[in-house]
Amino acid sequence: MKATQVPEIAGAYLFEPTPYADERGFFCRTFDADVVRSVGLDPNAFVQDSVSRSVRGVLRGLHLRSGAGEAKLVRCSYGEIFDVVVDLRPDSPTYRNWTSFELSGDTQKTVYIPAGCAHGFQALTEIADTSYRIDRQHDPSEDVTIAFDDPELAIPWPLQVTSMSQRDREAPSLAEVLKHQEG
């Protein structure tokens, strides 16, 4: 497994495992504490694992947490997703930058998303399972959502959105969220 720093988002990393394939399928390590530690992250900091299943076209996000935020490792364990990270840390050298990744069950790549960054994804396959390893227990009172189609971000989502939560549909603009966080 190798770790590569993501240049568009300070402190973000892409972890790429080495799948071993044969006639049965494949096997690969999706988490390695030594590799995580090698980039300065505490592998023991992660306290919660979650998974979501989405169908093609479903969009989830853009989500982040207020307060101390939350860091997370995100991986598509089955299918394929278009994954987006937006840096919303005012002191970051990559503040307001965003980047995207195609994550898939075939590659098992994992993205480390630092606390203070928004995250969202769209399912590209009929079924896409997305796994999260999070460094804080979830507190719904800290949930923040930003409009996925915010013109300031201009994220080119690859598919027409087929479904999203009411919270995501009614999400405020990036400018509104930032104004609220400053106030």
Automatic annotation (TrEMBL):
It catalyses: dTDP-4-dehydro-6-deoxy-alpha-D-glucose = dTDP-4-dehydro-beta-L-rhamnose. It comes from the Bacteria. Keywords: Isomerase. It holds the Pfam family dTDP_sugar_isom. The keyword Lyase does not apply. The keyword DNA repair does not apply. InterPro entries: RmlC-like, RmlC-like_jellyroll, RmlC_Cupin_sf. Pathway: Carbohydrate biosynthesis; dTDP-L-rhamnose biosynthesis. Its EC number is 5.1.3.13. NCBIfam families: rmlC (TIGR01221). PANTHER family: DTDP-6-DEOXY-D-GLUCOSE-3,5 EPIMERASE, THYMIDINE DIPHOSPHO-4-KETO-RHAMNOSE 3,5-EPIMERASE. Homodimer. Catalyzes the epimerization of the C3' and C5'positions of dTDP-6-deoxy-D-xylo-4-hexulose, forming dTDP-6-deoxy-L-lyxo-4-hexulose. Belongs to the dTDP-4-dehydrorhamnose 3,5-epimerase family. This is dTDP-4-dehydrorhamnose 3,5-epimerase.
